[in-house]
Amino acid sequence: MTSGSAVARLASAALLVLLLFPIFWMLSSSVTPESRLFEARPLLPAALSFAHYRALFDERDFLIPLGNSLVVAAMTTAVVLPVAALCAYALARLRFRGRGLLLALILAVSMFPQISIVPPLYLILRELRLLDTYPGLVLPYVTFSAPLAVWLLTGFFRQLPAELEQAAMVDGASRLRALRDVVVPLAAPGVATAAILTFLYCWNEFLFALSFTLSPDRYTVPVAVTLFRGRYQVPWGQVLAATVVATIPVALLVVAVQRRIVAGLTAGASKG
Amino acid sequence: MNRDMTIEREERRLARWFVAPALAFIVLGSLVPIAATGWEALYGHDLRLPWLGRPFVGLSNFVEAAADPRFRSALLHTAIFALITVPLELALGLALALMMHTAIRGRPLFRLAVLLPWAIPTVIGALIWRFMFDARAGVITAALQSVGAASESFDWFAHPLAAWVPIGAADIWKTTPFVAILLLAGLQTIDPALHEAARMDGAGSVRRFATITLPLLRPALVVAAAFRMLDALRLFDVAYVTTAGGPGTSTETLSLYAFVALMQRLRFGYGSALSVAIFLLTFAFALVWVRALGRSLIGDRT
Prior knowledge:
- Chain A is about 75% helix and about 0% strand.
- Chain A is built from 12 helices and no strands.
- Chain B is flat and about 80 Å long.
- Chain B has a single domain (about 40-295), classed as Orthogonal Bundle (MetI-like fold), CATH 1.10.3720.
- The interface between A and B is large, with 98 and 102 residues.
């Protein structure tokens, strides 16, 4: 990168701007008064106005979708992690028939188009009176986020030194005890990464939430924001404030554990 | 009694218990529903007309779909969208990955810039882009107007072709970072000594990129392209939020049309047939891709 270093630097800067400008513009517009949103304005707002945020919580009761999203994401993560961790450990460490087939199945399922299971799920949930309830969302979320968690944790368990468990087992510990005393403590970072990615998946999910929730009291954040309606048109001020609020938990997670997320995503991928 | 054999048997038993819950979720949550969608597609089931019952109609839902101009254009839209955006995402993702790989300073900034769009909910990202392309408030529209590239009354969302631009922009912005992360992992597995040796032999950076980086990055590119294609073929969130298929149905994708048939018209039999079509399309793509480009997808993991 010597000959083209000026060009490369320029290109990097351009890419950075492209990636970050929409986020900056969302922030800056969300604190711009409604009257000024639709006219030419400088990049930085002249004065800060939090009217959109107040309206979001006072008029729209945005705490309800926030709470719904949090509950569904937390419930899903709590179900997915133990299930995925056990499966991933078996895939990474135990010899059994059908292992390759199971891995292929898990990868295939994670690639399923979501719409292709919406009709029967809708009918089943309706029959069980689970439409418009938390479990009605947690069920499809678990199914769709488990493959990702298994994939990630399998890669993670493979990286753990097998010698430690073997040493414990040679010393007479059973596989289960070696698992409890040696593997579980070592696995904490990997499980944390899987938890974050599962949480992000749920926070992000749209199609199932749009199909299986019916009343505003049960909308998750993406559904609520998308279905905001004004008297005449999109109430952009409140929509933008809502996008900022919906981004905050994601941004905090990303800033806190960015190294770990990249490592987790690539651990699954580079082995694939 | 052979101790190894007992351990082996014990391991297999343990593995069955460990795998069972995840397998149950996959079978009950994905495989059974897929089969049920195929089954439902054979019935004339309309939730708005419950008095008609649920008569068996064989393949006539599929026959109807094959002749449905709206389905055909949704198929065309989806295919063209995927064929245009995925190569762009791969190229931009590769550029981004190379920058992250070679950056000496600013690596944390790059990582943050890449992870934020990736982690922001798709719907939220799409709303931001819709706002930026808005006819009245859009900063992009305003910028184009100020240099005379767009007329005062220009509205991206009112034009059947221009309406694809916000969808494409939102999709590329959101997914290029994911491609970059996958490719960065691939780049990091390339031994720097190879580049060093080639440099000693007088190979310039372009030559080294073409003869070392690209060939060694092939597996990562194949995987990234597969992930992106499969995602693009089921495109829903971005299209629903930015244009909702409009104007008219000129930006309607397959998933959008299936959603309309199912959740708005409540034609469950026909909507299921459309869903099956989407499933078969992605499945066929995955099969062809794995066949053609081999083991990089599911192979050599053992």
